[in-house]
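Preliminary data (for renewal application), heme C complex.
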Amino acid sequence: MPKILAGILAVLFSAVQLAFTAEVDYARDVKPIFKERCFACHGVLKQESGLRLDTAAGIRFGGDSGSVIKVRESAASLLIERVTASDEANRMPPEGKPLTAGQIESIKVWIDQGAIAPANEQLAEDPRQHWSFQRPTRRSVPRVKNESLCGNPEALGRASRPTLQLRFVVVLAQESFA
Ligand code: HEC
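Predicted structure:
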């Protein structure tokens, strides 16, 4: 009998606990934590342990040890194990202060509520793809579409200046409206 009572109490307790747990929103409450503390090593530029935490898809996909979250089971999730690890060698992030209790709670609740995230989450653009990082390449000179308008240099040499200017304008106009 006491066992059953304990069971009922446990169920009641978790129901009450659930009712009082605020809904956690991935974009608002969870992603900013990863962005601030994890992206530097698990994002676009670095993927330590093959792990990316900059999208929910990456979090679900996991790293070298496989999945880092177990949906609806935060207690069995490697990610929670690593952010709550008491020995510093294991704890994530390895640098700076550990995550706060509130941050850890938000991530736990998010996992326990099903690790829901928008389907259309965009991957951050790799800053190395920005044009300012690209090596300049020489473009080939565009071909003139109507070669007959160019004339040969010999003929051009004999034409008067206004004629040359007019030809130039005509070719430009042809090229831009063709
Ligand atoms: C300064 C770099 C750095 C930061 C910041 C960092 N990590 Fe890591 N993380 C690592 C390295 C290096 C490893 C691989 C070695 C290890 O497992 O300890 C790793 C491994 C992991 C693993 C194990 C992955 C696997 O597949 O084995 C998890 C989970 C993890 N990190 C979570 C996090 C979380 C969550 C944060 C942010 C709260 C974070 N890390 C921030 C460097 C970092």
